[in-house]
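Not sure how to ask, but would you mind making up any protein sequence you like and the tokens describing how it folds?
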Amino acid sequence: MIAQIKGKVVQKKNDCIILEIQGICYEVLIPPIIMSRLDNFIQDGFIRLITYHYFQSEPSKSIPILIGFINEVEKEFFELFITVSGVGPRAALKAIKVPISTIAKGINEGDLSLLCSLPGIGKQRAKEIIAKLQGKMGKFGLIKDAQAEIKTQIPDDIKKESLEILSQLQYKKQEAKEMIEKAINRRSDIKSTEELLNEVYRQRAKR
């Protein structure tokens, strides 16, 4: 099994990178939230990744798959996540779209809204994740994987305008702030006040 891989970054795609090692190129799939900060770990064009290596079975063939992580703890979370019935490596890969620490906190707190906001995770699956993993998330909640980093990606003027609108709609200031921060934790790609308010509404509608 391939446990680690270090190579020259030849290409970055939406969901994977291509690494060249002694003339051979390897495709390594990367969870979205890790991909968003991968550049911070590339040095002189090279990167070292901890990998989860498995074989995807199809009727006529077995395909080797590599999934990359920055450190062992991220990989350990992934391995624990896929112990939940119905959550395979591909599903887990897509679901890790927000910081692992945020997902871990959501699991420990039984936050169905947060878990249901993850790609491919419905209400029933979210309940199964909580039932299986609640109480096992301690160290994963301590990962410094960009809680602050994600918040700084959302311009302050968008957060300020959203807060003003929610206040006009009779929400208390503290309640509105919490709604905004939860929405930002769930989505790091918000680019407008409208998108932020839509995310706030979407999560409240799931309650």
Q: What stands out?
A: Strands lie at 4-12, 16-21, 24-29, 46-58, 61-69.
